[in-house]
Amino acid sequence: MTMVRSSTKVLLALAAMVPLAGCISLAPKPPASLLTLTSTTALPAGNTQTSGTAPTITIQVPVVGQSLAGTRIPVQASETSIAYVAKAQWVEPPNRMFARLLSDTIPAKTGRIVLSSSQAFSDPGAVLSGELRAFGVDAGTQDAVVVFDGSLIRTTGKVVEKHRFEARVHVSTIAAVPVSVALNQAANTVAGEVADWVGK
After folding, report:
1. Domain-embedded: residue 5
2. pLDDT of 94-149, one tens digit each?
3. What are phi and psi of 174, to 5 degrees?
4. In-domain check, residue 21
5. CATH number at residue 95
6. Roughly what angle, to the nearest 10 degrees, separates helices 94-110 and 176-198?
7. pTM here?
8. Which residues on neighbouring strands pair with residue 130, listed in sequence order?
9. How far is residue 110's CA from residue 197's CA, in Å, rounded to a whole number?
10. 85 within a domain of the structure (yes/no)
11. How far apart are CA 23 and CA 192, in angstroms?
12. Can you give the residue range of the structural domain that contains 76?
């Protein structure tokens, strides 16, 4: 008799939870698709490089402020407030995507070999680091904006060079697709300018 009562209580509890299942969400609904960056300058397939004949470089993932630490696209609504582009989400944080974009662009434009962190342990070659200051939309001008403060050590233990790079691309509408396309263009422009700087 006790087992029957226990089973009945369990079934009643489960039945009570069914209507709530459609009302409660423990995570935000994901967008229909995730956004990413695509390099417009990269080495062709089959290309072979060797550190015996080419200089090397280690590219560190840029640091970012809190507004760029996640996967949403920030919109600078005013000098003191930030919103986000609706239904827009990167596949990973923008600083990681930008580091990968640099890793595609710099070898293609300079001939340098990009080393991984494990390969760079004994001799990192040149070291590129920095801060991704902006990677979003300026609502006032309706521009997609990418700002990167680069720090470059050309020879281990030597002088640090710093340079700020900025690119703006106008967006017709502040929505996921036009903003991501404009940011991809701006990011490639900055990556190309960084590669030119590294290659001097």
Report:
1. no
2. 999 999 999 999 999 999 989 987 776 667 789 999 999 999 999 999 999 999 99
3. -85, 85
4. no
5. 3.40.50.10610
6. 40
7. 0.81
8. 150
9. 10
10. yes
11. 48
12. 54-198
Q: Concatenated DSSP letters for the chain?
A: -HHHHHHHHHHHHHHHHHHHHTT--SSPPPPSS-B----SS-PPTT----TTTS-EEEEPPPEE-GGGSSSEEEEEEETTEEEEEEEEEBSS-HHHHHHHHHHHHHHHHH-PEEEPTTTTSS---EEEEEEEEEEEEETTTTEEEEEEEEEEESSTTSPEEEEEEEEEEE-SSSSHHHHHHHHHHHHHHHHHHHHHHHT-
- Say if residues 99 and 68 touch (Cβ distance below 8 Å): no
Q: How far apart are CA 11 and CA 95, in angstroms?
A: 49
Domain total of the chain: 1
Does residue 138 lie in a domain region?
yes
